[in-house]
Every structure is written in structure tokens, then in C-alpha cells.
Design a protein that fits this description.
alpha+beta; Substrate Binding Domain Of DNAk, Chain A, domain 1; 5-stranded antiparallel beta sheet; 57% helix
Length: 635
């Protein structure tokens, strides 16, 4: 009645018999089929994997599994009776209840053991199973744990108070129970000694009090940590007391200090039981402090009070000196050696382990052989169908005769018939041999077709390289001799390579055109690639040389001559133009500074200057007349 609906998840739920059994088991009229059974399982698994992985960030997706069977811890110890006789008592402590959620951690404390002992982890009450299920269930004992070194830990820490031997259990996300560690815990009280303050510390406190920092100093990090530890112990003790009361109600013969099961996660009742104690302790301390305050205030009132801040600082110091600090609890943990015997899933013997590994290897080899055979059969079948289709394509018919195509078609038909009759039971080697035989028969036909497909691209690349190489060679030969960076041998080598490649191309094409397309071709794509590589190597050599070549320096003689010529011309021009202007200025401005007149010109010069139509003659006549007048003035 508590089940509202049963939703089917998983592909196997489509089986009618499965649905019939489910309907009968849950007593419903119909099952929930409103989701895709396959997609729901797959998507849920993917989402859960992403949630568990640290590489993806998804919305919170909490899946809590539950332990189907209860698990408990059993142990035996000596108990002293009222008549002082000793007897063995068998104890059971439930570790995980039935349908307890996991992952979860639990801690069990053994308080009465002071020497090495052992305990058992078993299944709990399985009365809800019928006899057949219990018989199939097998061993109830999961693990046997033997502890060693308990007595040594007690001898080593004899001055400490024992807090029991704690066993830490962990049930992980897969529901696998494991014992993480076992440790012996001891505790002792340690009194704090007040350290004398140094001069610098006192000076710092006085200065800080002047600026309003004279209040009581907060507790240090160590004290805070210790207080947390004390609270944890109080919580644990409160949990022990409540569990002890419950156990006394069950049996009055058991002692109050018997071994008790402690969980790491305290229940709400246990968590709430500790604060009242902590609050009562704080109230008592505050009352003590309040009782001390009036006396301190009276003493300080009698003294001189220069300022409120100085009074507060002295009161704080006296409080710190008189305050009685509670002793701290120091906790010591000693690791205990443990030997674990797993009984629910025992380890395989060495022979059984080797046998299982060999079986796995045989299965792996068998799977690989099966994959190889299937791959060979698929390759043979696909080759037969593809080749039969190619025989009717135009490019294959162009390079083959009718007889060649009929021979290939006949072999392919025989292989196809063999595949249908005997091929599916044939071995891998036989299938590979059949495929190799057919490939050998069709090799020449496929080669001719493949070569004709490559020709246009290869020939175009060769023609382009020849054109570029010829242009490069012509440009290199046109470089002036003064700037030439290539030697004649290099240019001749390139020219020879161009000519040889051109001749080979023309001759090979001519011979190829003469033969029938059904014959083996003379022009091969690999030969064209070799010619392209050889010619390109020569061109690249010259290009790299031109790229890294340094320009030749120009001659300095030419520049020097031109500069000197320009200077000479400039000086002659200035010499020819400047004196006449100076002479004119001297004639007009300073006639008294004129020097003695020059001698009269020679007769030959005068005769030459008297030529008709000459400007020089007229100029010289003027200068002669001027000279005569100057002479007269001077006389």
C-alpha cells in the first residue's frame, strides 16, 4: 500500500515476463512506462559520473544508497562476577542498521581492553530472510580483526588516562565496508605556566592601553583549539552517558563502563546535551571574575588616578595575574597494528589466480581472432562489390579491353559465390588469401586508372615550374656585371636543367600518345615528381643565394672627381663675376683710391680686337679711352 507507482528503468524491463512478475509482486494494475527505459538509465549514469568527477560542474545530484543487510561488531571479554570469579562475556554492537544510508563513517570504542585482542565484523539479524535465502547467503562473518600492540601502548603511556581503543570504519560510495585504522587514545591534564613578561612587552601593553587597547586580550589560537577539543570530549562523554542509561534499562547486570558504539555524526539529542554544561562552566567563571572585580576596583580607587586609561590598564594587569587558568587537556593517539582476515570474499589461491588470469587471456585472444576474421570477411566482400561496380565506369573501360574485364568479372563472381556458400565458415587466412588473389588480378587495371588521374595535376605543376624558371634565368642574365651575384657556372647549370626537363617532357608525352591506353603507361607520375624536385632544387639554390647576398660597394673615385669638378666650376664662376662689380663700385664711390694705370695694350692685341662686329673690340676701346683720361688727370 505504501507504493504509489513502479516506474520501469532499463532495457530488460521490456521483457513481458519481467513485467508480469513485477505486477504480481507489487500488486498493481499497471506499471509506469512514461519514460524511455534505455535513455533514463544512460542519462542518469552519465549525470552521476559528471557529478562525481571534478572536471564538470553540475547541479547538486545526491544519490543515497542503503545497506540492505545490517552489520554488527562482536567481541568477547572477561567479566568479574560478584563472587570474584571470572567468566567470558560475548558482546554485540550494531555498526550499521538495516537500510542505513552510505557513504558513512562509524567509530567504535573499546574501553575495557588493556592488552591485545580480536573482534569480528558480522552480518546482524537476518530474520527477515527465509531459510532458502539464508542458506544461499553463505558465511555471516565478514572480517576478523586481530589487534597487536595494545599492551605496549598502555605501558608507554602509563601516566596518561585511557580514553579507549577506537576502531574507524568506512562504508564507501560502492557499499564496500573497510576498517581504516585502529588507535589507542590517551589524555592528561597540563597546567599552563604564566610566563614573565619582558620589558618590551610591558611597554607595548602600556602604549596600546593609551590608545584604547587596555581591555582584556582575546585568547590565543592555541587556547581556542584546546577549547574545541574539550567541547568535543564533552559531546562524546554526553553520548556515552545517554547510551549507558539505555543499556542499563536493557540489562541491569552490565557495567556502566562497558564498550559502547559511537558514531562520528552525533545525534541531535547528544549535540544539544553539551551546551548546558559549557554554559554552566562559563557562568561559574564569570561569577568568579565578578567577585574579584570589586576588590580590584577598591584598590585602584585608593591609588592616584592620572587618567582612566592608565587605571584600566593596571586593573587588567592585576586581573591577568590573579586569574586562575584551568588546566588544558592534552590528547595522545597511538596507532595500533591490525591484521584483517576478509571472509566474505576470500582471496583466491595462487593456482586459482593463475588459472583465472589464463582464462581471461584466452578470452581476450579469442575476441581478437574473431575481430580479425570479421574484418577480413568484410574487406573481401566489399572489394568484390566495389570492383564489379568499377568495371562499368567509363574511366576503367577506357584503359581496359573487353577480354580483361570479362576475366576480372568472372573471378569476382566465383569469389562472391564462394563467400555465400563456404566463406562464412572459412578461416581468417583463407579469406586473406582470396582477397590477395583478387587484388593481384586487378592491380594493372587500377594502376592505369590511377596514373591517368594524376597526370593533369602533375603536368600542370611541371609546366608552371618550367615557365617560372625560364623567367628567373632571363632576369638573372640581365643583371649588370658590376652587380652580378651569380656565377656563369650556376646560371649554365640552371639553363641545362631547364632544357633537359623540357626535352624529357616533350619526348615522354610523344611516346605516351603513340601507345594504346590499355597498355602500361610510359609517363609515370613518380617520374614527373622527380623532375619537379630536381628543377626546383636548382632554382631554390639560386634564390637562397640572392636572398643572403650582400650588395657590392660603389667606387669612391667617381664621386671625388665630380665633387672637385663642381667646386672648380663654382670658384671660376665666382672669380669671373665678382671682380667687375667691385671695379664699378670703386669707379663710382672711391675715385681717389684708384691705382696707377696699366700699360697700353700690345699692337697685336689691338689689331685683333679691332675686328668688325666684335663686342670685345668695343669694350676694349672704352677701356683704352678711360685709361687715357685717367693718365691725363694724373699728369
Amino acid at each position: 500500500d505504501g507504493i504509489d507507482q513502479v516506474i520501469l528503468v532499463g532495457g530488460a524491463t521490456r521483457v513481458p515476463k519481467v513485467q508480469e512478475v513485477l505486477l504480481k509482486a507489487v500488486g498493481k494494475e499497471e506499471l509506469g512506462k512514461n519514460i524511455n527505459a534505455d535513455e533514463a538509465a544512460a542519462m542518469g549514469a552519465v549525470y552521476q559520473a559528471a557529478a562525481l568527477s571534478k572536471a564538470f560542474k553540475v547541479k547538486p545530484f545526491v544519490v543515497r544508497d542503503a545497506a540492505v543487510f545490517p552489520i554488527q561488531v562482536e567481541f568477547t571479554r572477561e567479566v568479574e562476577e560478584e563472587d570474584k570469579s571470572k567468566s567470558l562475556k560475548h558482546n554485540k554492537r550494531i555498526l550499521f542498521q538495516r537500510m542505513a544510508p552510505y557513504p558513512q563513517r562509524k567509530v567504535i570504542t573499546f574501553n575495557r581492553y588493556t592488552d591485545d585482542f580480536e573482534f569480528y565484523v558480522n552480518y546482524g539479524d537476518l530474520s527477515f530472510l527465509n531459510q532458502d535465502d539464508v542458506r544461499i547467503f553463505g558465511s555471516f562473518n565478514l572480517t576478523t580483526v586481530r589487534l597487536k600492540g595494545v599492551g605496549d601502548s598502555f605501558k608507554k603511556h602509563s601516566d596518561y588516562e585511557s580514553k579507549g581503543i577506537k576502531a574507524h570504519f568506512n562504508m564507501d560510495e560502492s557499499g564496500v565496508l573497510s576498517l581504516d585504522r585502529v588507535e589507542s587514545v590517551f589524555e592528561t591534564l597540563v597546567e599552563d605556566k604564566l610566563e614573565e613578561e619582558s620589558t618590551l612587552t610591558k611597554l607595548g601593553n602600556t602604549i596600546s592601553s593609551l590608545f584604547g587597547g587596555g581591555g582584556p586580550t582575546p585568547e590565543t589560537g592555541e587556547n581556542l583549539t584546546d577549547s574545541v577539543q574539550e567541547e568535543e570530549e564533552n559531546l562524546a562523554e554526553a553520548g556515552k552517558e545517554e547510551q549507558g542509561e539505555k543499556q542499563e534499562q536493557k540489562s541491569s547486570t552490565e557495567d556502566a563502563g562497558e564498550e559502547q558504539g559511537e558514531e562520528k555524526q552525533q545525534s541531535p539529542d547528544q549535540a544539544e546535551s553539551a551546551p548546558p554544561k559549557a554554559e554552566s562552566q562559563k557562568q561559574e567563571e564569570s561569577e568568579k571574575l565578578e567577585s574579584q572585580d570589586p576588590k580590584e576596583k577598591r584598590e585602584t580607587a585608593k591609588e592616584e588616578e592620572p587618567s582612566k586609561s592608565s587605571g584600566d590598564s593596571t586593573a587588567t594587569k592585576t586581573e591577568e595575574e590573579k586569574k586562575i587558568k584551568a588546566p588544558k587537556k592534552q590528547k595522545v593517539v597511538h596507532e595500533i597494528t591490525m591484521e584483517v582476515d576478509v571472509n566474505d570474499v576470500p582471496d583466491l589461491l595462487e593456482d586459482e589466480l593463475k588459472s583465472s588470469m589464463k582464462k581471461l587471456q584466452d578470452l581476450t585472444v579469442r575476441d581478437l581472432e574473431k575481430q580479425e576474421r570479421e574484418k577480413s570477411a568484410n574487406s573481401l566482400e566489399s572489394f568484390i562489390f566495389e570492383t564489379q561496380d568499377k568495371l562499368y565506369q567509363e574511366e576503367y573501360q577506357f584503359v581496359s579491353t573487353e577480354e580483361q574485364r570479362e576475366e576480372i568479372s568472372k573471378k569476382l563472381s566465383e569469389a562472391s559465390s564462394w563467400m555465400e556458400e563456404e566463406g562464412y565458415a572459412a578461416a581468417t587466412k583463407e579469406l586473406k588469401d582470396k582477397l590477395a588473389e583478387l587484388k593481384k588480378l586487378c592491380r594493372n587495371l587500377f594502376f592505369r586508372v590511377e596514373e591517368r588521374r594524376k597526370w593533369p595535376e602533375r603536368l600542370a605543376a611541371l609546366e608552371s615550374l618550367l615557365n617560372h624558371s625560364t623567367i628567373f634565368l632571363k632576369g638573372a642574365r640581365m643583371i649588370p656585371e658590376s652587380d652580378q651575384i651569380f656565377t656563369e657556372v650556376e646560371l649554365s647549370t640552371l639553363e641545362k636543367a631547364i632544357n633537359e626537363t623540357t626535352i624529357w617532357k616533350n619526348e615522354t608525352l610523344a611516346e605516351q600518345n603513340k601507345i594504346s591506353p590499355t597498355e602500361k603507361p610510359i609517363l609515370l607520375s613518380k617520374d614527373i615528381e622527380l623532375k619537379i624536385a630536381a628543377l626546383d632544387r636548382e632554382v631554390q639554390y639560386l634564390l637562397n643565394k640572392a636572398k643572403f647576398a650582400k650588395p657590392k660597394p660603389k667606387k669612391e673615385k667617381n664621386t671625388t672627381k665630380t665633387d672637385s669638378g663642381k667646386n672648380a666650376t663654382g670658384t671660376s664662376e665666382t672669380e669671373n663675376t665678382i671682380p667687375p662689380t667691385e671695379g664699378k663700385q670703386e669707379d663710382t664711390d672711391k675715385p681717389e683710391d684708384i691705382g696707377p694705370a696699366k700699360e697700353p695694350p700690345v699692337a697685336e692685341k689691338v689689331a685683333a680686337d679691332d675686328e668688325p662686329g666684335s663686342d670685345t673690340g668695343s669694350k676694349k676701346e672704352k677701356t683704352e679711352a678711360g685709361g687715357e683720361s685717367r693718365k691725363n688727370d694724373e699728369l
